[in-house]
Amino acid sequence: MAISLKRVYELPAASDGQRILVERLWPRGMAKERAKIDLWPKEVAPSADLRQWFSHDPGKWRHFKQRYFEELKSPTADLESVLALVRAGPVTFVFAAREERFNNAVALKEYVETGGSGGPRR
């Protein structure tokens, strides 16, 4: 399972594999042609309420992940599409946030890599 992370404002590369935009809203100022997104599963992104509450505050990171993982536990066609691409590999979760350590792409990568548990694989 090869999942990379990249800001949407960085240039796409062939090594990105399938580029999955993991945002509910289209990134500001980004032309769709330049972003080269293969899949935009909006329902995989955190809810608007959760995203606004979190606001990329590192102090809320742990609680944000818990709440986000709870949202992801309700299977959707969007999540199944993401998982299918991940299984086929490689993929890049593309995100818009300036914060590169505490964002939903990082959390989603952890969720997928741990099989939805949010904890380390055993």
Low-confidence stretches: none
**Would you count the extended β strands for me?**
3
Oligomer: single chain
Fraction in beta strands = 5-15%
Instruction: State the distance separating the first and last CA atoms.
Output: 16 Å
Order of helices and strands: EEHHHHEH
Estimate the helix proportion, in percent: 25-40%
- Class by SSE composition: alpha/beta
- Approximate shape: globular
Strand order of the largest sheet: 1-3-2
* Helix count, DSSP H or I runs of 4 or more residues: 5
Biggest sheet, in brief? 3 strands, parallel
Average pLDDT value? 92
**Rounded radius of gyration (Å):** 13 Å
What features would you highlight for this structure?
globular, alpha/beta, 5 helices, 122 residues
Explain what this protein looks like in three dimensions.
The structure is a single chain. The chain is α/β, with parallel strands linked by helices and 122 residues long. It is 37% helix and 11% strand. The protein has a three-stranded parallel beta sheet. The radius of gyration is 13 Å and the shape is globular.
